[in-house]
Specification:
It is built from nine helices and nine strands. With about 300 residues, the protein is an alpha/beta fold. It has a nine-stranded mixed sheet.
Length: about 300
């Protein structure tokens, strides 16, 4: 394959060549594929192979808090343990077409080519009654939701607990670290991490209490980043405008487990608005074939190949 994006040192971190993968090769992404992906449409009813459905956790029955669950066509109850990809969505931001809703998620499906179990996690509102579409809602409740439901989903759908990806776009890209590495307990849930556009600790979010002042925010983000603890991490961004790599290296020194995929959504889509993307700031870039999707899929395959 051409365009390998993962340096040898990163593969060394992931495991030895003799490691036995917990995931069958049939789940590897076809990096040469020219397929244009089409996101599944949210439907009513119970989870089933090939369907995207809304799930209300037992703790939130009677509220509007829910996550979405997609089971790929290859899923069978009691069958092969499939990888999972969990996702945090961007803020409500009409200019870019981001609804902030779990049902508006797109990154996780594109990154997994529709072959993984895919879950869009909610941000629980301050009153605990709805999904929040801007920032974190009740931060503690949002983190607790992941702590309770990630293991539950793995168990209920027979997924592979050694192949658990966490990804996020925009707000969600910050959330990968801010929420996914919030403390030691939640940080242990994930095998690998993927962000697209934005990164925890890079810029000040002056209208928030958690994202300012910048010095305080960066110091706290640096502590969260340390909880990655050598696991594979893919940082994608439209252009090189956020300084994520500089920040990561300033905090960790060595960033051998990190891969940086600077992409061009204008190159991918040609012009905006596009049927799949309203603007350049979009989580749907992996739905179209490109050298950037190839790089991301090669990284996904490499992570799976090196699982012990």
């Amino acid at each position: 394959m051409s365009g390998i994006w993962i340096p040898f040192c990163t593969l060394a971190v992931l495991g030895s060549a003799s490691a036995v993968s917990a995931v069958e090769s049939s789940d590897r992404l076809d990096t040469d594929s020219l397929e244009v992906l089409s996101a599944p449409v949210l439907s009513k009813g119970k989870p089933a192979a090939g369907r995207l459905v809304a799930i209300t956790a037992p703790e939130y029955v009677g509220t509007g808090v829910f996550h979405t669950l997609y089971l790929p066509n290859s899923w069978k109850k009691g069958g092969e343990r499939l990888p999972l990809i969990f996702e945090y969505t961007g803020n409500y931001f009409p200019k870019s077409g981001s609804t902030g809703e779990v049902e508006g998620a797109g990154l996780g499906y594109g990154l997994s080519g529709g072959q993984f179990i895919w879950v869009s996690l909610p941000y629980v509102s301050e009153d605990g009654r709805d999904n929040e579409v801007t920032w974190w809602g009740d931060e503690d409740a949002t983190v607790e939701y992941a702590k309770v439901n990630v293991p539950r989903i793995i168990e209920e759908y027979g997924a592979d607990p050694k192949a658990v990806f966490l990804c996020g776009f925009s707000r969600g890209a910050i959330g990968v670290n801010y929420l996914g590495l919030h403390d030691d307990e939640v940080a242990k849930l994930w095998t690998a991490f993927i962000t697209h556009d934005h990164f925890d600790g890079i810029k000040e979010w002056g209208t928030t209490s958690w994202g300012s002042p910048l010095d305080k925010y960066r110091a706290e983000a640096a502590e969260r980043l340390k909880r990655v603890a050598g696991r594979p991490y893919l940082v994608c961004q439209n252009g090189d405008k956020y300084g994520s790599e500089v920040f990561v290296r300033s905090v960790l020194g060595s960033a051998n487990n990190f891969t940086f995929n600077n992409l061009s959504t204008s190159e991918i889509f040609g012009s905006f608005p596009h049927p799949l993307a309203k603007a350049a700031h979009t989580d749907f870039w992996a739905y179209l074939p490109s050298k950037y999707r190839t790089r991301a899929w090669e990284w996904m395959n490499a992570v799976l190949d090196q699982l012990e």
